[in-house]
């Protein structure tokens, strides 16, 4: 076969490019789609073991023992305007028996500059010829990014058709079609404008730099230099323009048939494992293209790296996710168990449908509305049938943006009854985080109040919009239709978003049987009977009232701010339903005590509060003194604090009496013994330090995280257990103690330290309202810093505490060693006063220690002090 002269020969990258091992570089000859011999540059972890006679390997060979014969191969294909450098972290982290090959497409990177304009099908054929020359054997996983996606997928489809062992596909920010009704990315359309294309892509490096600018935070200078390395001259950038021009923006484009064939061919990959890793902030390949791929590859595992954009490989642990996914043959997650058959979530509505017992009471100022179980059951059935008539289908996702009350309850149970999956996003997250959550969940329908629908239009939230004002008409239509089929216990029931106090809010998936198990555990744990009535100042908990068959009410308050609950509002709600149960977050209860004077001489409210038998508070550590003070208002109540999280609640429970008995004898907060049916274990990684991550196993543990495959993998990597992210220990009597979060552990020189006990000690100082213990400095040499918020603190951005306050805080911490659980003294390096510590929006109680640690570092460094 004759060779045609290259406009510029292939070459190896210069030394000094960040993250590249020169031993990986290979120059490999193979025919292209025209039969002309071309030379490719590629990176290969097994270069020394894979040298062929026609392969030029001039770099010093690595130690042959460093790599064994591969058991599988990753074939990585870049897009435009990058090169194999994009995949360097995969090569760096590859196990010894995994071969990673990252190619530079012809005319790109350091491969040969042939001067040939290559269309999509040409590039697919080129890659087929190269893989044949490489003699790839055994299982092959193809990994791709950007417009390397269609090239790699075309190769994968052909490889599978020809009998090759296609073991899996990993796609990152790419596309195979322009979804109907949407416009091509503005960046691409703008670059294709006449007079702009060559100026942006060939004459200058503007197109490359535009790709850099899509990354936030900005790429490091050495990484930017790495991406630019092969494209320093205009002659080496011709293919960048060719790639942009080859994107089909209309059916008449020469590459449109090839792209359509690749898209249609995805159906052939139904039995091939697929992983989609996405940077959702990408201005080119947004979630629009992710969801298109999900529809074409419904079996795919998905992980959205929230905050990451186009070069997701630079902003997130893509390599870690890929190699974890390759190990999926050893499944992790819930062990097989015999499941208890339980009643549907709406069963109590049917059972109580013939009486006049109130189901939900809605309080709004001086106005009170209510609905009976009979009325609720009728509306739920009618709405379920009506929604089915409106096109809401079984397994469709329905975002519900309605404040707690009657309408929210009707919509929720109607969706559950017809098998739709409810998407529950707390409005307390704020518009930005709500937008992120809804983009992640991608609901098919959105039911909301007018303000929510206006926000949906402005912020472009996904889903067909249905207003609360339309419900009556939909229910009316539903009365003329038969009931839609009900879901099974294994069907998905809900996607519930976390508070976002430890990072971006995550969607937690529940199946019906898991919510049923949670309902039954709550009923058993707190001995809930038909005689009970609930006031819930934490809105999600109120939704379980109908499932438990008890009357429920939410006080007149701003549900986005738990701390807005007043004593008068609580008293009014308790009186309205004759409540025996109260559930509220610590922040809500603090404000109840603060506003206790509002009750005044209101005899009815005070009498009603005396009828409460059980006070529950959760969401953050609850001080025994707070509960003690509240029981003065509710003298016949027993106070309990359940421990759990959005992923599994409850895990354990402790009464005020037990809390007093346990005292501060150990590090952290005692949260009681695990409840019946719940198993708790402590990870032993930190056994020498006396604590470990808390692991939980129970029937009501979540199914998984929504579109967060890697997060779910990390949370369930101990087979059959959910890793909570909390650290703690179990004492000799079987009580569980929580000491903080994994990411908040202080890595001091002498030991690993957990924050909660230090914070409790600081908060024992009379003037300290709230405290956060954080580590400042490099891991392994961090020092303990306490940041405190005072009852009457200075209105400063941040300052070191005065000598008296600092001495009081240090003395309180020293008592942990003298009187309590510390095994050795701990020095407090600094005490800093902050005007207000940042807390989560849902509970107004969880402290963001990570943010505080960064802020404290800046204060101690004497830098500009930004608002905390």
Quickly list its features.
13-stranded mixed β-sheet; 9-stranded mixed β-sheet; 30 helices; 32% helix; 21% strand; globular
Overview of the molecule:
The protein is built from 30 helices and 35 strands. Strand 10 (358-364) and strand 11 (367-372) form a beta hairpin. Helix 3 packs across helix 9, helix 5 (197-203) packs antiparallel against helix 8 (238-245) and helix 22 (567-577) packs across helix 24. The chain starts with 24 loop residues before the first strand and ends in a 7-residue tail after the last helix. Strands 11-10-19-18-20-21-22-23-24-29-28-26-25 form a 13-stranded mixed β-sheet, sandwiched between helices. It has a nine-stranded mixed β-sheet with strand order 3-1-2-5-4-6-7-8-9, sandwiched between helices. 32% of the residues lie in helices and 21% in strands. Residues 52-65 and 330-335 have low confidence and may be disordered. 52% of the residues are buried. The protein is α/β, with parallel strands linked by helices and 868 residues long.
